Amino acid sequence: MSKRKQEKPQGTGKRLTEAQQLKIRELRKQDPDKWTYCALAARFGCTDGTTHRIINAKPKAAKKPKAAKPKAKPKAEKPVAAPVDKAAQQ
Predict the structure, then answer these.
(1) Any residues with CB less than 8 A from the CB of 45 and at least 6 apart, and which?
(2) HEC states along 29-79?
(3) Phi and psi (nearest 5°) for 31?
(4) Number of Cβ atoms within 10 Å of the Cβ of 3
(5) Which long-range contacts (CB under 8 A, 24 or more apart) does 11-15 make?
């Protein structure tokens, strides 16, 4: 007997819209016994891992607009000290 590699379900590569993601969350919340990860994946044409990530995702925080940074002032050049001849000092 030869052992075959069991193929994992492949996604379609398409992105689910925000509306579809919201619907997945709503269906799962209404009836988790009926709307399992696999049932939702079959309905929306994605993998059960995708439905799991959508349902368990943390809510996104609203992005705050970044304040404009003030332009940096050009750095003043430091005066270069003349090399000290230690032999001359002694």
Answers:
(1) 12, 14
(2) HHCCCCCCHHHHHHHHCCCHHHHHHHHHCCCCCCCCCCCCCCCCCCCCCCC
(3) -150, 85
(4) 5
(5) 11/46, 11/47, 11/50, 12/45, 12/46, 14/45, 14/46
Q: What is the pTM of this model?
A: 0.53
The pair of structure tokens assigned to 16 is: 């689910």
Amino acid identity for residue 37 in this structure:
Y
From first CA to last CA, the distance across the chain in angstroms is 93
Q: What is the pLDDT of residues 11-57, one digit of tens each?
A: 556 789 999 999 999 999 999 999 999 999 999 999 999 999 999 98
Euclidean distance between CA atoms 2 and 74, whole angstroms: 72
